[in-house]
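Protein modeling request. Please complete all fields; requests missing the sequence field cannot be processed.
Requester role: graduate student
Desired output: 3D structure, C-alpha cell encoding
Chains: 1
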Amino acid sequence: MNLPIVAYGNRILKQKCIPINENTQEIQNLIANMWETMENSNGCGLASPQINKPLQLFIVDSQITFENLDTEDQLLYFERNDKGIKETFMNAKIIDSSEERWEDYEGCLSIPGLSQKVERPWGITIEYLDQNFIKQIKSFAGLTARIIQHEYDHTQGVLYIDHLKPLTKKMIESKLKKIVNGNIKAGYPMKFL
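Delivered output (193 residues):
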C-alpha cells in the first residue's frame, strides 16, 4: 500500500521513536508498505515517522543509487566492492563513527524540493534488528552510511536541516513555510498539517 508521507511541520517528525518489541504481521505489513511507498516516491530511504508511525524503524536502498551512477561517481561515493544495500533497520543504534567526515547534499521526502549540504562521518558501525528480527552489527561507509545516518536521525526526532548552520536555515525559511502550509507539489501523496 502506497502511504502518504508526512510533511515538514508535523510534530511526529520531531519525536524520538519507540522500540519495536515483537515481530508481528502488522510490523511485517508496515515494512512492506514502507518499501512500496519509498519506491513510488523515488526515495532511497524512509523512516516510519515519515508515514506517521513513531517506531524505531527505517529502510535503506543505496543499491538503486549505485546502479544509477556512472563508474566515476560510484568510485567517489562507494568503497571498493560496495554496490549498496537494500536493508530494513529496527531498534538501531549507531555504536561507532569514523573521524573522517565529508559534506554532500541531502534531501528528504518530508521536505520536498529542498536539498542542502550536510557534514557527516564517512563511516559508521550500527547495531540493529533486520526484517527477520535477527541482531546485526555491521559497518557501512560512503553514501550508504550517509543514507543510514539520515534515516536513523528520523527515529531520533532529528531532520537533516537540524544539522545546518543558522544562516543557511534562515535562507530556506520561506521554502519551509510553504511546505508547512501545504503550498508545494511533491509528485507523491503527502500528509500536511
